[in-house]
User: Which sequence fits this backbone?
């Protein structure tokens, strides 16, 4: 049960692997299906997991991007994500980790405040994406976005690296974040 | 306590050539080596980028991290410093890119100007050629007109000659010619008669000038007139 390291394995040719971590299995499966349907020139591999650490017995390729899916309706998902974050090598947070918060549309069901996830993302210096995974169109759009993100993190886009993208995305973030 | 984490993997095969769509039919066999080329080029770009990433990670790992345990605030201050450095490096890069772009822009503008000049000169050449063509056409027309005129003159001449010939061959002329000949013959006979009269009379016609003149006149050969 060792920590995941970002660059310990050699990349597969024309292959990009994404790991979706979250407690909501149905949502993850749906998101995985949307991602596989999206237009992409590289081979996509989607791995789903409830929490880290991952069992070592499985022979898996090098993971290029990890997306933590937090459901704003359940505190359990946030807790599980926070626990999983400890098992991650620090080198991953240089652009290969992203947070995805779902369920913000239905404000009455939200048990986690929006700012909590914002703070979490800020602590780990990673981008935070909001999406209602239950709605088909939003999910498809987010899947497309994740595919592009994955391509850059896997090094398939010449001229842009994961770190580059991180600083680019950070530049457009709300400057009021610094007050938190 | 660690929960047993499940893991599922789902994969999707790649579309060779990069276009999402139905697989190619036999008719597209000629396109496959090109697809392989594009695939190879794409793989090359990817491998380059990945190599760059690995290299930068190796370089980053060679840097020494501070051994002492610093306070959190100091760490944050250091982080901010480093971030500022990164921002400065980025802005310098952007400025360089802008400068290069402006040079590129100048080149493109020059190219555009030259293209305009070329087009103008080509247009002028075209106009001059058209004028040349017009002049040549006119010359041809004039030649043809002069040819026609000469032909007309020739036909006129021929007609005149024919008229003349026909005239000569007409019967009237023949009749007149006949008459003339008979008259000449008669006159010649009369001439001979008078000659013989005068000679037969054995008169010395050399002495009398009037007689001399008559005899000489009688010698005239009328067919020669």
Assistant:
């Amino acid at each position: 049960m060792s920590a995941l390291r970002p660059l310990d394995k050699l990349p597969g040719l024309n292959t990009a692997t994404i790991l979706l971590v979250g407690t909501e299995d149905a949502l993850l499966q749906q998101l995985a299906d949307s991602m596989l349907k999206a237009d992409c020139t590289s081979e996509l591999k989607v791995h789903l997991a409830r929490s880290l650490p991952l069992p070592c017995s499985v022979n898996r390729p090098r993971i290029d991007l990890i997306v933590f899916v937090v459901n704003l309706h359940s505190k359990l998902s946030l807790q599980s994500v926070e626990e999983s974050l400890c098992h991650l090598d620090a080198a991953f947070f240089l652009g290969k980790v992203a947070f995805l918060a779902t369920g913000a549309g239905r404000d009455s069901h939200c048990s986690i405040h929006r700012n909590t996830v914002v703070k979490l993302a800020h602590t780990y210096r990673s981008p935070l994406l909001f999406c209602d995974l239950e709605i088909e169109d939003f999910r498809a759009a987010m899947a497309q976005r994740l595919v592009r993100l994955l391509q850059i993190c896997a090094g398939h886009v010449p001229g842009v690296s994961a770190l580059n993208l991180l600083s680019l995305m950070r530049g457009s973030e709300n400057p009021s974040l610094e007050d938190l | 306590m660690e929960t047993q984490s499940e893991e599922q993997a789902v994969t999707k095969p790649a579309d060779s050539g990069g276009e999402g769509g139905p697989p190619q039919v036999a008719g597209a066999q000629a396109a496959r080596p090109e697809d392989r080329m594009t695939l190879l080029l794409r793989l090359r770009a990817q491998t380059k980028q990945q190599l760059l990433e690995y290299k930068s990670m190796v370089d980053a790992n060679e840097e020494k991290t501070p051994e002492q345990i610093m306070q959190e605030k100091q760490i944050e201050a250091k982080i901010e410093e480093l971030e500022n450095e990164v921002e400065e490096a980025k802005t310098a890069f952007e400025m360089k890119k802008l400068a290069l772009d402006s040079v590129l822009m100048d080149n493109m503008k020059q190219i555009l100007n030259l293209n305009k000049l070329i087009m103008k000169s080509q247009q002028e050449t075209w106009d001059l050629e058209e004028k040349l063509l017009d002049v040549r056409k006119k010359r041809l027309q004039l030649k043809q007109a002069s040819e026609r005129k000469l032909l007309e003159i020739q036909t006129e001449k021929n007609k005149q000659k024919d008229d003349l010939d026909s005239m000569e061959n007409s019967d009237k002329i023949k009749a007149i010619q006949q008459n003339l000949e008979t008259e000449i013959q008669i006159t010649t006979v009369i001439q001979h008669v008078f000659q013989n009269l005068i000679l037969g009379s054995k008169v010395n016609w050399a002495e009398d000038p009037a007689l001399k003149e008559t005899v000489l006149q009688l010698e005239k050969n009328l067919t020669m007139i």
